[in-house]
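Reopening this one. Same input as before:
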Amino acid sequence: MLIKRIYDQEDYDIALSIRKKVFIEEQNVDEILVIDEHESHTIHFLVYLDSEPIGTGGFRTLPPAQYAPKYLGILKFEHIAILKKFRNKNIGSALVQHMLQVAKKHFQNHLPMMDAVISAVPFYENLGWIAIGKTFLKKNIPLQQMIHPN
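Same output, byte for byte:
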């Protein structure tokens, strides 16, 4: 397995293809939540298994939050997706752990945060993420805000 940061349009297009398959086609998520105005400010990653792209994720910086006064800002993890036939093989865990390592190295003064789909909360809790606040709806999708004490 290889996880790499995306630097070019070709890899970005591959990542978008994976996100569309997972979120739009499989989970019926509104495209506005899958591709948004923050794309150019996001650091994107691709996961390869035997040279086949099978997963993606990214994060972007946000201003500081009230609940995290010791941090210079927030690092929002988003669009983490693994193609269906490759799930439950620890690939998602490896991707998130890799992203956390990059965050710790390059954004050590930012608190990792995400809005996780409710069904994925146990997955993220097993990786050390902590649910904060109440669940909420975004485009009729129940979400839970989570932080990682990186």
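So the earlier flakiness isn't reproducible anymore. For the record, The radius of gyration is 15 Å.
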